[in-house]
Automatic annotation (TrEMBL), chains A, B, C:
Belongs to the aspartate/ornithine carbamoyltransferase superfamily. ATCase family. It catalyses: carbamoyl phosphate + L-aspartate = N-carbamoyl-L-aspartate + phosphate + H(+). Keywords: Pyrimidine biosynthesis, Transferase. Carbamoyl phosphate binds at residues 54-55, 105, 133, 136, 267-268. This is Aspartate carbamoyltransferase.
Length: 307, 307, 307
């Protein structure tokens, strides 16, 4: 049942998730004890065709904390053989020869699956365009488990750009593994949750609703999952502006939220959570970022063991 | 006889090549056994004034597999002190102070020699403009030796952009160390092998011919060495288009090739070898890329021992 | 008294400087003995919002020589979450979770202090715009101590762009810790030393003068500290040209300099020290660059011990 490739949220079953989170807890202890050099002879390659400093550094720190070596490129699209006309498949075949694991971020949906199809080493999807971002969803779930104490019986409100935000898609898919989940989608009119996500939830029997009144759903929410309106995904500035600023989490909203609820955000934020919220104990988004390190360590560990 | 700087193909004698390939075989075993940490206290700096993700990752993986540390820059031309007016010589003097070995890629012919002249550590040339790319030629030769079993008595066909392709120049020079070599140069009219390469082969008594009929020479070839028409080396699009698409290795050509021949390519490719060829056992170009790791490990090992 | 953050020159007292230089000497011995792996489980993140290959490589080599791991970004401004609208504070909070120390270079004055205010790990300022560059000044002082044998009783001439050159500001501040210091500021008319630096020297009782005759002050100088006219800090080309080429150190100037004096330069240079000077034993600027490695190792060591 050990993991090899990590490609999309739908590949995970509840027992797999249980096991990953168990290893993640072990990784927390390893970091607290000063790190490990178990994988000192392993090489991880980060191939980022789309920049994402945060996600890249998180993976590179995870590999370093396990004692491993990191090579890679910050900007594969601009510098690599790609501009000389090389296919992704050829790039992956060659990079496989230099690596024990490949972490890929790409602009195209399905790129990670194409990479995995030809790679001779495990491939971890660090985001493929408007597709998926499964390692983010794993750290989201792990954070909920750690903060709230359970992954069943939850009311989760997803807020912001639900059309382009791949993290909410992946998280929705993964939540279908749990019982008695209720999701509220709270999005500006022009960036609502896609039908294919709703269809998947229907198939899996997960309850959801589209609700425009943030204050109303915040009253019963266990988790407010805020996301950024991603300017770079919009083709027109006027569409972007229409989506912006409609749903902001601030000290007023904190007042109606339950005491044992939490606020998550995949980060970076750009104003959709007021800075004043940071001091509230329910603001869990920086702890969530920290959990990304532990979860990615666990995924690397699983990949090396599976090999 | 141990190597220190690796600057150009002409510096290598047959005994030196024999020794490098012997160490390379040892490196293959070391990688198979899970790597080494012999050079854990050594620091390699990669200075890439011209992007080449593939070559850089290959060197960085090689250093990592030997346990060493890697620092460097993906794009020295854009980011470094160069844009502040610093000479290459000053850059190298400073970087020498931080490094145990420098791997340099530069746009200017002779840049690696200029670097070696002032460096206080070994310099490995990872390509200097339209000049040389000696580590590529070493891995080419190693691949031929490993795949065909010998480096004497060979018919080698070099195909594609032979005017701008530095790998074919360096490989031609190195082949003069071996007996009974016959080279066929098969290039589009506007990118033929330069006179200075032919002159060197004449001096060394190596047999060569310029032949426009690829199918004819493929019948007797032991090695088909295909190269990409390098768009970035052309000043006019019409010249580029004239050179493109004339010589493609596909399943039709496979039919006339000898069973014990091989196809090499320095990669990346951009259509000049059809994807259908990949499945044929004679398609050795991905194994060739893998050999790059072992050869570069051997060169680093030699450089550290020579010090 | 152990150091944690390194933010600006004014934070250093003479006993702190004594201690840093003692550790620096130890680091020289460690490098001579082949390095250390004391900090093999530590991770350093380099966040360079403004490119500076030299400074970054110096820090990364320092961390590597101590056995540590390095992650980071060459060009945080272009690639990071910053372009998605993230504040520096948010970036630092997240990166803190992945790192044991953060090295930051930024375009804005005070950026390092803002980073330190929210970081949960030590922050080392590698230059904040036209603000400070304290690690450079520490290596400058260390070089003077090593080359001249003392840090009291010195005549130091600072030459070049004294308006925009943060290294001369930081160095001037640090020199106030020593006795009987005399500073001559020799700058083109449009890039003279700012009043706030002179005011600080006045407060601390350090003797200084503004002197346009380089040859005159060079006769008594113990240290000529030359700096580059930084084209990138000028808004008009004509202003830049006015400042350029006025004060050049060449073989003629060497003739009037004292035999036991030294020439320093933070590098890169762009013509303001003639290449012919390099061979003179008083040309200490490349040894100075080398000392940067040792000083940064000492600062990392202090930061990890303070933690």
């Amino acid at each position: 049942m050990s993991l090899y490739h990590v490609l999309g949220a739908k590949q995970f079953t509840r027992p797999m998730l249980d096991q990953i989170f168990e290893v993640t807890e072990e990784m927390e202890r390893i970091v607290a004890d000063g790190g490990s050099d178990t994988y000192r002879n392993k090489v991880m390659t980060t191939l980022f065709f789309e920049p994402s400093t945060r996600t890249r550094l998180s993976f590179e720190s995870a590999m370093s904390r396990l004692g491993g070596k990191v090579i890679g490129t910050e900007n594969a699209a601009q510098f690599s053989s790609t501009i000389k006309g090389e296919t992704l498949e050829d790039t992956i075949k060659v990079v496989s020869a230099y690596s024990d694991v490949i972490v890929i971020r790409h602009t195209d949906i399905g790129a990670a699956e194409r990479a995995a199809a030809v790679a001779t080493v495990p491939v971890l999807n660090a985001g493929d365009g408007a597709g998926e971002h499964p390692t983010q969803s794993l750290l989201d779930l792990y954070t909920i488990k750690k903060e709230i104490g359970r992954l069943d019986d939850l009311h989760i409100v997803m807020i912001g750009d639900l059309a382009n935000g791949r993290t909410v898609h992946s998280l929705s898919y993964m939540l279908t593994n749990y019982k008695n989940i209720r999701i509220s989608f709270t999005a500006p009119e022009n960036v609502q949750i896609p039908n294919y996500v709703k269809k998947y939830l229907d198939e899996k029997g997960v309850a959801y609703e589209e609700e425009y009144d943030l204050e109303k759903v915040a009253r019963t929410a266990d988790v407010l999952y805020q996301t950024r309106i991603q300017k770079e995904r919009f083709t027109s500035l006027s569409e972007y502006k229409k989506a912006c600023g409609q749903y902001i989490i601030d000290s007023e909203l904190l007042k109606v939220m339950k005491q044992d609820s939490i606020i998550l955000h995949p980060l970076p934020r750009a104003g959709e959570i007021a800075v004043e919220v940071d001091e509230d104990p329910r603001a869990a988004y920086f702890r969530q970022a920290q959990n990304g390190l532990f979860v990615r360590m666990a995924l690397l560990d699983q990949a090396f063991r599976a090999k």
